[in-house]
Amino acid sequence: MTIGAFSVSLAVKDLAASKEFYEKLGFEKFGGDESQNWLIMKNGEHIIGLFQGMFEKNMLTFNPGWDQSAQNVESFVDVRELQKKLKEQGIDTGEDIDSESGPGSFSIVDPDGNPILFDQHR
Questions:
Q1: 8 A C-beta contact, residue 13 and residue 52
Q2: What does the pLDDT look like over 66-86, one tens digit per residue?
Q3: Which of 4, 19, 28, 117: disulfide with 63, CB 3.0–4.6 Å?
Q4: Which CATH number do you get for residue 35?
């Protein structure tokens, strides 16, 4: 099952301090809006999201329809199809996505309580 670009979304306490720390590890700002308390940072193909006050826990994030540079890929499995396949396998995916196409998202939780977000932007 192809599930899209991968990143780790970190729930941070201080966006500026986290940005400075990850810059020391070679990450550079790739996207986001500091005035809205979130940044996407990249080091090669490695992506992290820094989110202050938006999430309770760190989570894995997959973006169907994107590559690791947030560029559209020609062929991908739509987030609604991913949700359907996971439900068929007995995984609780929460509420069904309410649109038939375009952007959509859902979350699951692994056996250890780690949240996993599937977030399609197109």
A1: yes
A2: 999 999 999 999 999 999 999
A3: 4
A4: 3.10.180.10
